[in-house]
Amino acid sequence: MDIKRIGILTSGGDCPGLNAIIRSVVKASALKGWEVYGIPYGTDGFVEVAHGKYQAEDLLLTKHGYALPGMLKGLDVLQFLSGSVLGSLSKGHPEQPDIAAAILKGYAMLDIEALIVVGGDGSLDIIYDLATKGNWHIIAIPKTIDNDVPFTDLAVGFSTAVDIVTQALYDLTFTAASHERIIIVQVMGRDAGHLTLHAGIAGGADIILIPEITPCLTPEVIRGCCDQLVNLRQSGRHFALIVISEGVHDQNEQKNKYIADYLAEKISQTSQHLCEIKDPSFCDLIDLDIRATTLGHLQRSGTPLSFDRLLATVFGIKAVELIEQGIYDQVVIWRNGQVEHTDLQPIIGIIKKCHQENRCAFPVDKDGFMVKTAKSLGIYLGEV
């Protein structure tokens, strides 16, 4: 196929490195004489095309900027910027027939011959179904701070998010030490603990709680946290740093938006109870100041690290190469330090099955080297 026009979109939650992907796709395509069309706000952009808000020429990307009103000029700086200049918002779900029909119509109106989809597991699942209905030629690029896309060791955005959380833990350590506080930090990751585990180890956490090992905060887990805090005090440490993933559930096995605050309350209650039943070692915990902090969307921002820029760049170039070779329905992956590609369909199958079962498609390996590393450092992981 003589390729002349391709599209690119970013979908789902934003993360550092998305703009670097866009930049590399446009640069690599320009050298081949291809036109690249940036679809604004994920699949919503196709709906807007179908409704006449955009014409194809409005979405044309060049080496020097965008024709889109309000978009950033000077494409070369994109590798340094977080977020996505294309936007990454999904207002409607394509399971609604009218929305799906508009998306398919908008795609056809742009007359593009292939589409590069930059997304996490949820976005890839949705867009794969649309691509199947519309007979689209797609290449997927994994991006997510959760790092939960199967078959790839790393997704774009994960490394920078780990660095952001690690820096936050470093900063919080000093205020914890100054005030002899226990600080509990709630970290993103949805149902995966990769971000919490990596940053917790790098940031010097004393306790790391992730859903793969601690699905919920049972009384045994809370008691284990109290034991760890007592051990630290007996060793001369009068402060502590606890990192908990948002995917950990409460004692009732329910998702809790404020799981860090919940954990703080349970540690205080359990310490009080243990002190009252004549175990004096826990009495020292009663008056300790416990503070909970939720990092929130700060984890999605910040200048992408050099590695995320490089990963984004090579992923984008690989996607263009696959299109040139006429190899479609692929996902670009990073495995064993190399850029590779694999069929998208098996990955989508895993994602769909895991979504139906409400579990992570690419969880932390409980027997993996990162978990072993944490244990070797004496970090309490909540295992019972």
From TrEMBL:
Residues under site feature: Important for substrate specificity: 122
E.C. number(s) listed in UniProt: 2.7.1.11
Role: Catalyzes the phosphorylation of D-fructose 6-phosphate to fructose 1,6-bisphosphate by ATP, the first committing step of glycolysis.
Enzyme type, top EC level: transferase
Phosphofructokinase domain ranges (all copies): 5-323
Swiss-Prot/TrEMBL catalytic activity: beta-D-fructose 6-phosphate + ATP = beta-D-fructose 1,6-bisphosphate + ADP + H(+)
Superkingdom assignment: Bacteria
PANTHER family in the cross-refs: ATP-DEPENDENT 6-PHOSPHOFRUCTOKINASE 3, PHOSPHOFRUCTOKINASE
Keyword Disulfide bond found: no
Descriptive protein name: ATP-dependent 6-phosphofructokinase
Subunit structure: Homodimer or homotetramer.
Cofactor(s) required, per the database record: Mg(2+)
UniProt keyword annotation of Cell division present: no
Cellular compartments annotated: Cytoplasm
Family: Belongs to the phosphofructokinase type A (PFKA) family. Mixed-substrate PFK group III subfamily.
Active site (record annotation): 146
InterPro entries tied to this protein: ATP_PFK (IPR022953), ATP_PFK_prok-type (IPR012003), Phosphofructokinase_CS (IPR015912), Phosphofructokinase_dom (IPR000023), Phosphofructokinase_III (IPR012829), PKF_sf (IPR035966)
Annotated binding of substrate, by residue: 144-146, 181, 188-190, 246, 291, 297-300
Metabolic or biological pathway, per its Swiss-Prot or TrEMBL entry: Carbohydrate degradation; glycolysis; D-glyceraldehyde 3-phosphate and glycerone phosphate from D-glucose: step 3/4
Entry binding sites for Mg(2+): 121
Keywords linked to the UniProt accession: ATP-binding, Cytoplasm, Glycolysis, Kinase, Magnesium, Metal-binding, Nucleotide-binding, Transferase
Chain sites annotated for binding ATP: 13, 91-92, 120-123
